Amino acid sequence: MNSSTFTKIYPKNEPLGDEAKKAVIDTIIEQHMDTPGATMVVLNELQSAIGFISENMQEYVANRLHIPYSRVHGVVSFYSFFTTTPRGKHTVKFCMGTACYVGGTPALIEKTKQLLGVEPGETTKDGNITFEVCRCVGACSQAPVVVIDEDVIGRVRPNKLPQILKPVQDNVE
Amino acid sequence: MKYYRSHVLVCVDPSCLKKGAHDVMDALQDELVAQGLIDEVQVLETSRIGGCDDGPELMVYPEGVHYSSLTPDDMAYLVEEHFLKGRVAQKFVTEEKSFIDEELSAPTSKEIRVVLRNCGKIDPENIEDYLAEDGYQALGKVLTELSPEQVIDEVLRSGLRGRGGAGFPTGKKWQFARSSKGSPKYVICNADEGDPGAFMNRRVIEGDPHAVIEGMIIAAYAIGASQGYVYCRAEYPIAVKTLRIAIEQARNLGLLGKNILGSDFSFDLEVRMGAGAFVCGEETALMASIEGQRGEPRPRPPFPAVKGLFGKPSNINNVETYANIPQIIFRGADWYASMGTEKSKGTKTFALAGDVRHTGLIEIPFGLTLREIVYDVGGGIKDDKKFKAIQTGGPMGGCLPEAYLDLPVDYEALTQAGSMMGSGGLVIMDEETCMVDIARFFMDFTQDESCGKCTPCRVGTRRLLEILERICNGKGEIQDLDTLEQLCSEIKQDSLCGLGQGAPTPVISTLKHFRDEYIEHIVNKRCPAKVCKALIRYEIIDGVCTGCTVCARNCPVNAISGERRTTHVIDPEVCIRCGICMQVCNFNAIEIN
Q1: Which of A4, B27, B122, B586 is the 20 to 30 A CA-CA neighbour of B433?
Q2: Domain membership flag for residue B106
Q3: How do residues A25-57 score in pLDDT, each as one tens digit?
Q4: pLDDT tens, B178-232?
Q5: Does B582 score more than 60 pLDDT?
Q6: What is the C-alpha separation between A135 and B268, in angstroms, rounded?
Q7: Which of A80-84, B12-16, B150-154, B357-361 shows the highest mean pLDDT?
Q8: Strand-pair partners of B191
Q9: Residue of B564, B585, B561 lying closest to B575 (CA atoms)
Q10: Is B584–A159 a contact, with Cβ atoms under 8 angstroms apart?
Q11: Which pLDDT value is given to residue B97?
């Protein structure tokens, strides 16, 4: 079956309505479309390049990889790293591994809820910070741990949180 | 090969780089050139040495002198003193205290480092460092001297068993994959280290990636595979990056790719990233994920050795298993089998975490007792509190009480005690840990990570969690304990994969060893460890409180009131029992009742 058959079956859609982003998506797809098991590779790269994988994007990927949309959506909804909505510019992630849990992450989460005004899994109203609770990040010897963007900060105490969060709170852009 | 009289290792981890490690390195090289020493002294980059707080820092070998707090301007003096006059430049020598690697400290007398031997010692991003530590010697021996059958025989004789947790003999697994018909065959490395509390595999990949790669190439030769995959979890971005660099370097030296080392054996390797699903550590789910599907396990048989990745015969082992292989081939099966117990040979890495004095990675021969691990290697319980339990094997493992401390650590002994080896997380808990809460915590984890394919796991873990939550909230009934036991045995028997089969273990083990605590929660509505929020209240002790207001300022829900310099009061209706006040109080004026 050639690709033109598929374009007939699936409505032609613009993944984002934005030419620059479409170019990014196309490059990623073209680079990996012949790799065995391409779906995961493409989705992983899209998530890190664009920050989320909307339904339009999923449909577009399915179309280009010649696989059913349901397969792509199934994969996106299965893995917790894939998100379908835009996230904040910064991510504040609290590790909920055993060592961090025993080391006091629950108290840190309560304090952060107060400081950011949102629940875990949500993004602040200004779209700046996404507040998350995540699985063990493997930095157990420094428990409890918070990951801000890509920096791992260890041995966090609740009264240190305002100081730790300030740089990302101030850094709106 | 050139010979140098000295090697200088400059730490280029992010914090040292920020402080100008590269400028120091450039100045050092310029000075060595100026003094005509550049052919005698080699300057290399390395990962953290352990004194980054006082960076930039460097190590000079063979003397092993550690210099820190350096600036480019200091280099002229340093080169003159150390390399020309041959004296240690005392003013830059750091005191012993800064040699702290939080994850991996110097081995204690009970440890033997095989898998971790190079971690923290070599530059993981430079293949030359690995080559200097006898790297790829084993591969050379395999390709020139040994037939695939002989390789498998050597691994069998070493007694090496799968380090991912189940402990299946590695040589046997390879035999199955070798005798299986079909082509191409695949070699897969499971680097989806999802157990909370475990980070051994991350550290091995980040610190010594070539050991894993070499192990995989040898495995590929033994079973006749042409393509390999390392499946690494997305939570480990640095490990993925290190591995990709290492693969590229190995390829450039002809250690990967077509006709490896001039032989007719070809093999290549690729890194695939997970996307945050714990169940992908299960081998059939992992392969589904590489294939680009939802990471759901499937029934076995057929085993991966017969029908694995893309339906082809595949061999799948864990990071630590592969990292052992080069050493076994290079130093011989007899050497490896001389360590450990009768049925569990060799060494095992563990990640010590929780309420123990020295947290971090350790590597011990099998057969050491839990007591030796906690007290001799781990330095005992933090703040001299009382030991309560040790949790082995991750969320599918169990909690063992003090009575089991003299248990020798090997696969069989841990399973018989009602826990398991698992991948090697050891979480030590002191008297302030509530075992019912721990069981609830693990069930919360497994029910969330259950992929939902089979009913016993999907529904059963949910029901277990509900009952445990009820007990923690003081609403449990005594017959709940029987229901828990029955549910546990059904989930264990009927689930499809290791996740479901292991999910009840934390509940079974805590019910067995800490039944009294469950009964206290149910009958007396009391949490003896003072953890379960519904059963405790925080109170400020009159007379001890100085009215410093620090608790009130830190309370996330403003439940604390009181004038400055008078005793404060916590409103139990508003209080959410987060415990922050107790952590921040400088006068120990807050107690739990």
Answers
A1: B586
A2: no
A3: 999 999 999 999 999 999 999 998 988 899 889
A4: 999 999 999 999 999 988 888 899 999 999 999 999 999 999 999 999 999 999 9
A5: yes
A6: 31
A7: B150-154
A8: B232
A9: B561
A10: yes
A11: 46
The CATH architecture annotation of domain A90-170 reads: 3-Layer(aba) Sandwich (3.40)
Cα distance between residue A148 and residue A100, in whole Å:
16
What is the interface pTM, i.e. ipTM, of the complex? 0.81
Amino acid residing at B257: G
State how far the Cα of B575 lies from the Cα of A41, in Å rounded to an integer: 46
Q: Where are the domains of chain A?
A: 3-78, 90-170
Q: How far is B552 from chain A (nearest CA, A)?
A: 12
Which among B372, B365, B357 has a CA at the least distance from the CA of B406? B372
Based on the number of CB atoms within 10 Å of its own CB, is B6 exposed (0-12), middle (13-18) or buried (19 or more)?
A: middle
Count of CB pairs separated by less than 8 Å, A with B: 154
Query: Is B27 a member of any domain?
Result: yes
- CB-closest option in A38, A75, A137 to B294: A75
Query: In degrees rounded to 5, what are phi and psi of residue A53?
Result: -130, 95
Percent with pLDDT over 90 in chain B: 69
Which of helix, strand or coil describes residue A151?
strand
A40 contacts in B (CB within 8 Å)? Answer: 272-273, 275, 289-290, 292
Q: Helix/strand/coil (H, E, C) string of B209-249?
A: HHHHHHHHHHHHHHHCCCEEEEEECCCCHHHHHHHHHHHHH
Chain-chain contact of B197 with A136 (C-beta, under 8 angstroms): yes
Spell out the residues 6+ positions from residue B491 whose beta carbon is closer than 8 angstroms to its own: B456, B457, B460, B461, B464, B500, B501, B503, B504
CA dist., res. B423 & res. B336, Å (int): 20
Statement to judge: residues B279 and B411 lie in one domain: no
Residues 170 through 229 of chain B touching chain A, CB cutoff 8 Å: 193-199, 202
